[in-house]
Design goal:
29% helix; four-stranded antiparallel β-sheet; alpha/beta; eight-stranded mixed β-sheet
């Protein structure tokens, strides 16, 4: 897989052939029906991830984009160990972590943190901000004395733009932007190397979004952080990301450096996504209108999962799933048409 220009490739997190299915059939009795006088059991699975391969390089911000329901959040939660993969593996540096038990994951919990989309639900309403921030320090850095722990809490609050004197307040006493800053502080306080940020600004007012994004970018620069940034907002990707991976129905269809993917999108789905971005002035992209409806993840199409909506689809597309292959200096694409130069 192509790496970021100007730096030597060093994978911090690797996702290899990752599948994740969810059983939506209900209980055993819900799965039973009568067909032609016979008892039939039917199990329905939502195929959320279908062979994801990603290499997240140390120091980069890899943005994961795609429409709602494509599996972006499931990738982030599986990488963090909040969900177990149905198949495939997750590696942190050279260590496989998806098979570790709770005790085995402890050394990685400090290195890997997550910022959730819902800042209301991610903070305990019964704990003050100071107690919320002290808890991970006491768990991961018990060698620090209580004064040192409190100094660290005050320092991290100041670094994210929250007055350290507000530590005795509860989450409901803060605005949405302030709560998200506190969530960021909680992720940063154990000095992690890697952060999964799951739509961290989508629930915020537009006026606050830029402030939180800039805060995350400053933290990356100052602390040498690596991000997996989950978002549906392509303008955020252009501002924040170093590389971008575009997902459709649980598969990565294009991944590459942000500048190259935005200036010359190769996969038909990426072209359609980028054509929908409003643009003021300059040369406008031709709007690509996709046909048909998005297939259900319960009954995925054969072959390329995008073929039923693709304007360039041919017979091979309905029979054979394309693999990610190099399609530019810094871009990989999963498309038969790009590989064979149909368009």
């Amino acid at each position: 897989m192509n790496s970021t220009p100007g730096q030597e490739s060093e994978s911090l997190v690797s996702v290899r052939n990752l599948y994740r299915y969810f059983n939506v059939s209900g209980g055993w009795l819900d799965q039973i029906s009568i067909s032609k006088g016979k008892m039939v059991r039917k199990v329905e699975m939502v195929k959320a991830l279908n062979g994801i391969n990603l290499e997240i390089e140390k120091g980069e911000a890899l943005c994961l984009v795609g429409e709602s329901g494509c599996g972006k959040t499931t990738v982030g939660r599986t990488v963090m160990g909040l969900l177990s993969p149905t198949r495939g593996s997750v590696h942190y540096r050279e260590s496989r972590i998806d098979t570790l038990d709770r005790k085995g994951m402890l050394p990685f919990r400090r290195k890997m943190q997550m910022i959730f989309q819902n800042h209301h639900a991610s903070l305990n309403p019964r704990k003050t901000v100071a107690k919320t921030l002290l808890e991970p320090i006491r768990f991961h850095q018990p060698e620090l004395s209580l004064p040192e722990q409190r100094d660290k809490v005050a320092s991290i609050m100041e670094s994210v733009g929250v007055d350290a004197g507000w530590g005795a307040r509860f989450p409901h006493e803060f605005s949405g932007g302030q709560r998200q800053r506190i969530s960021i502080a909680r992720a940063l306080i154990v000095d992690p190397e890697f952060i999964v940020a799951d739509e961290p600004i989508s629930a915020l007012d537009v006026s606050i979004q830029a402030q939180v994004l800039n805060l995350l970018m400053e933290a990356r620069e100052e602390r040498g952080l690596t991000y997996l940034f989950v978002t549906h907002d392509l303008s955020v990707v252009e501002h924040f990301g170093s590389r971008v991976a575009v997902m459709y129905l649980g598969r990565v269809c294009e991944v590459g450096q942000v500048g190259e993917v935005f200036s010359e999108p190769r996969h038909p789905y990426t072209q359609a996504l980028l054509s929908a971005i409003p643009k003021v002035g300059g040369e406008k992209r031709r709007h690509v209108k996709l046909k048909g409806e998005v297939p259900t993840p319960i009954d995925l199409p054969s072959g390329c999962i995008f073929h039923s909506r693709c304007p360039h689809a041919r017979e091979i597309c309905s029979k054979e799933a394309p693999e990610l292959v190099s399609a530019g200096e810094w871009t990989d694409v999963a498309c038969h048409g790009v590989r064979e130069n149909w368009f």
